[in-house]
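Chapter summary example.
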Amino acid sequence: MKVNNLNTIIAIVAIIGLTVALADNPKPIDPKEKELNELLKKSQERLKKVNFLIKKIDNVATEKVVEMKEDIVMLQEEKKVLQEEKQQLTVELNETKAIVDSIAIYSSPFKLAPIVSDSTN
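The structure predicted for these 121 residues follows.
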C-alpha cells in the first residue's frame, strides 16, 4: 500500500509540476499572426473613423433635406399668395376695362389742332 500511495503522490506532484511548467511558459506568438492582429486593430480603428464620418455626413445631409423641404413649403405658400394676387389683379383689370369701355361709349372724339408758334425769333 505504501508503494501505491507513493506512486499516487509522485503522480500528483508530476501533474502539478507539468501544469505549473505549462502555465508559466507563454505560448510563442507567430510574427505573422502578430502582424495580422496589428493590421486588424488598425482596420478596426479606421472603420470607427469611417463610421463616425458617415454619421456626420448623414446628419448634415438630413439637415439639408429638412431645410430644402422647409424652403419648398415656403415657396409653395408664396406661390399661392402670388396666384391669389394675380387673380385679384385680373379681376380689377377686367373691372377697369369695363369702366373704360362704358365711358368710351358716352365720350365723343375731338380733334386736336396743331400748335403754331407765334414768336418770330
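To summarize the output: Residues 29 and 35 are 10 Å apart (CA to CA).
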